[in-house]
Amino acid sequence: MTDKARKTDKAGNCETSNYKANGCKAKICWLEHGKGLKIRYQSKMAAGIDLVAAIEPDKTIIIDPGGRELIPGGFAMELTRGFEAQIRPRSGLALKYGISVLNSPGTIDADYRGEIKILLINMGKERFHVKRGMRIAQMVIAPVSRAKLVFADYLEDTTRGSSGFGSTG
Q1: Given 27, 36, 61, 134, which residue has the most CB atoms within 10 angstroms?
Q2: Residue 25 has pLDDT above 70, yes or no
Q3: Which H or E element spans position 18?
Q4: pLDDT of res. 19
Q5: Structural domain total, the chain
Q6: Which uninterrupted H or E stretch holds 21?
């Protein structure tokens, strides 16, 4: 099926059977300042949903080199229990402009119901201009594993021990 011929749902998402297999749904609720914008997977096998800036149409947010800004996403969501959303940088913005997501990956828990916002940082050398509808990050939905916490007075010895940060090569 070609990109032009593929079927999309009301949210503009590519038709896929993966959500049926893992049981995850992301219910999107557009906020007033996000209405008219679209988020979607950009290809049939894309892992991330591209997120856009939900700022006023006549406004530009400028991120100075070394600076950071919290950009509104314009929507809230409800995830299936047992899943999280991870906010990640877009590789093209990182390569071309040095733009990244500061707390990458940012975690959005399934019980969070507030607006999705993206914390961008400019690690480039030039000012970066964010405009309404610009694709600024991607969101990957992933299953969550929770561990049983077991508190102990000692830990089993290993060859590596407490060596970290570059200790394996």
Answers
A1: 61
A2: yes
A3: helix 18-22
A4: 52
A5: 1
A6: helix 18-22
Closest among 87, 73, 90 to 28, alpha carbons compared? 73
Say if 37 falls within a structural domain: yes
**Structural domain containing residue 38:** 24-143
Task: Report how far residue 101's alpha carbon sits from residue 166's, in angstroms, rounded to the nearest whole number.
Answer: 24
Smallest Cα–Cα separation from 71: which of 33, 113, 126? 33
Whether residue 53 contacts residue 99, with contact meaning beta carbons closer than 8 Å, is answered with no
Backbone angles phi, psi at 96, to 5 degrees: -75, -35
Which candidate, 23, 128, 24, places its Cα nearest to that of 78?
A: 24
**Long-range pairs for 16-20 at CB < 8 Å and ≥24 separation?**
16/41, 16/44
3-class state of residue 149 by DSSP: coil
Q: Is residue 124 part of a domain?
A: yes
pLDDT of 163 over the 80 cut: yes
**Mean pLDDT for the stretch of residues 19-31:** 81
Strands 128-131, 60-63: pairing kind? antiparallel
- For residue 141, the surrounding DSSP H or E stretch is strand 135-143
CATH code assigned at 44: 2.70.40.10
Question: pTM for the full model?
Answer: 0.82
Q: Hey, what are 79's tokens?
A: 């995830």
- Tell me if 6 is assigned to some domain: no
Q: Is the pLDDT of residue 90 over 50?
A: yes
